[in-house]
Amino acid sequence: MAQYLVTGGAGYVGSHCVLALRARGDRVVVLDDLSQGHAAAVPEGVTLVVADLAARDKVAAVFAEHRFDAVLHFAARSVVGESMANPLSHIGANLGNALILAEEALRAGCDRILLSSTAALFGAAERQPIDEDCPIAPGNPYGESKLMIERALDWAHKLKGLRFAALRYFNAAGSDPEGRLGEDHDPETHLMPLAIDAALGRRPPLTVFGEDYPTPDGTCIRDYVHVSDLADAHLRVLDRLESHPRLTYNIGSGTGHSVRAVLDAVERVAGNPVPHTLGPRRAGDPAVLVAASEALKRDTGWQPRFAELDTMVATALAWRRAHPDGYAD
């Protein structure tokens, strides 16, 4: 039975990945400072260590107490707007924490790290859909921070034998189909949960940022991938690291949906209109981001099981209706 350390495992994507690891019988330790995560999101039977990755002594203590087969690194500051407002502290926190984690993992003899990376590395990509060979040109400090981490870990791979995979995924969406986990951020910045809360009358009208993009309806287009499919991809790549010491994959559904299409889907599934207003573009937002995931499918057999936009909305809506106050319930 393998044992894994999952940083940020009390957060949205991390907790769904922990759930998938537990479902196949693996042991898991979660390291999370709970600044964005929730203790209630950590599945039963999982050890939760509440600590900041910046506290090297606490990170070292976790590695001293447990022997891990690999680390799955989800913990990061990830809000693009915040990265644009505070670029130095944002990059410094993400890069510095990742370096501490990697150093302590290697010191403890753990030589496998799976990095939660991002499509923000590609900025305004020159072609769509975006494959792994697309030129890297981050359009915001968040994407830059993930690129710096990838480069640092790649040097650790070349010089220290680190087995390293970077999963550059697009927009995670939806909730565990069985209703065990969901999305609960404070503040919430993701479109789908904001639209759902607006449709349920739980928040003021949301703002659509920009209606003059070069897209069919003028709003940004994004590739949404169900969070449970994302977790499945992590497990498949984790297993592939056994025989392939350096991996990079883009993960998405391969289908782009505009902001207006998401609002329409929420209205359709919820049966309520989504109150919204129109605002100016946000700095750092590309017009289109759609993934080409053929490499992941070819190498691991991964196929998204919940690829339909209405299905993603339905799982997110079901969790929100059952947990109107999120994990505070």
UniProtKB/TrEMBL annotation:
It catalyses: UDP-alpha-D-glucose = UDP-alpha-D-galactose. One of its GO terms (biological process) is galactose catabolic process via UDP-galactose, Leloir pathway. Residues 5-252 form the NAD-dependent epimerase/dehydratase domain. Gene3D superfamilies: NAD(P)-binding Rossmann-like Domain, UDP-galactose 4-epimerase, domain 1. Coiled coil: none annotated. Pathway: Carbohydrate metabolism; galactose metabolism. It is an enzyme of class 5 (isomerase). Its EC number is 5.1.3.2. Its cofactor is NAD(+). GO terms for molecular function: UDP-glucose 4-epimerase activity. Keywords: Carbohydrate metabolism, Isomerase, NAD. NCBIfam families: galE (TIGR01179). Belongs to the NAD(P)-dependent epimerase/dehydratase family. PANTHER family: UDP-ARABINOSE 4-EPIMERASE 1, UDP-GLUCOSE 4-EPIMERASE. Homodimer. This is UDP-glucose 4-epimerase. It comes from Plastoroseomonas arctica.
